[in-house]
Amino acid sequence: MADIGKVGQWTIDAPNPSRRLLDERKGGKPSCTMGAPGKWLLPCVGFGVDLTNPVLKVRLSWSEVGNTIKTYLASSANTTSLKREDIHYTTKLASNSSYNTARQSIQQSLKRSGLGHIDLFLLHSPYGGKKARLDSWRAVEDAIESGEIKTGGVSNFGIKHLEELLASNPRIRPAVNQIEVHPFNTRQDLVNFCQAQDIVVEAYAPLARALRMKHPKIVELSKRYGCTPGQLMVRWSLQHKYVPLPKSVKKDRISENRQVGGFEISPEDMRAMDALDEYLVTGK
């Protein structure tokens, strides 16, 4: 995930995070506040790429992603003089197993990317059993303490998995839980738990993979706010204080999905969108 152009940012205290949103909205437009020393920044809107080349229809390796980032930063196309610290790179552990396997996977990912550090590293799922989950998290903690990772988190963890991890008295608590969240799958119980525990919710598939773009309520509200259905759904995520990860292979759509600072959904319309929940799981 790369953050190109700042809509807003979260600050995450390091190494034992206490998170708060630094995104004061004035006139409906999110404004950025930079984190103090000792804090890592997390973009308010991410960019889902899933390591996929849309032309070749193949998955990209860590080295290809890293080389692409470094080539762009050094090129004339980098007209805003972005630096490595302006890019927020996220990767994941494919599966939980032993401590050594997880530790080696982190080191391999970092070495092949060539980016110097991983901004956010996630346990991809809770699969593998309690011991595998806790051993894998211990590997993440050690990688944070060694400077290989800036921030650690989890993905697709339910309440019981988070409770298990927190009950283990980790040296470093998970900063993020990346889950599918959108108006048609609000995951309210899980979201409430995460926010009560000061865990940032990253919302993947925030556009419900375009399966409900023509829903009458989405169409109605998009016209009311003068935006696209995608922008409406991204804005819904932001107003719930999630970090949405809209995914597209089209350059103009990627840019469009980030242009959400010019309007604010009213509380009444937010409730109307919340009421669309049908526990729609879109899959991959």
Topology:
Elements: E1 9-13, E2 19-22, E3 25-26, E4 29-30, E5 39-43, E6 52-53, E7 58-59, H1 62-73, E8 90-93, H2 99-113, E9 118-123, H3 130-145, E10 149-155, H4 159-167, E11 176-180, H5 188-196, E12 200-204, H6 216-225, H7 229-239, E13 243-245, H8 251-258, H9 267-274
Parallel strand pairs: 8-9, 9-10, 10-11, 11-12, 12-13
Antiparallel strand pairs: 1-2, 1-5, 3-4, 6-7
Helix pairs in contact: 1-2, 2-3, 6-7
Amount of helix: 25-40%
Q: Approximately what portion of the residues adopt beta-strand conformation? A: 15-25%
* Helix segment tally: 9
Q: In sequence order, what are the helices and strands, one letter per element?
A: EEEEEEEHEHEHEHEHEHHEHH
Shape designation = globular
Strand tally is 13
- Give the low-pLDDT segments: 1-40, 51-59
Largest sheet: 6 strands, parallel
| Quaternary organisation | single chain
> Which structural class should the secondary elements be placed in?
alpha/beta
Mean pLDDT: 82
Strand order of the largest sheet: 8-9-10-11-12-13
Query: Which radius of gyration do the C-alpha atoms yield?
Result: 18 Å
Roughly how many Å apart are the termini? 17 Å
Structural features, described:
There is one protein chain. The chain is of the alpha/beta class and 284 residues long. Helices cover 35% and strands 18% of the residues. It has 9 helices and 13 strands. It has a 6-stranded parallel β-sheet with strand order 8-9-10-11-12-13. Helix 1 (62-73) runs parallel beside helix 2. The two termini are 17 Å apart.
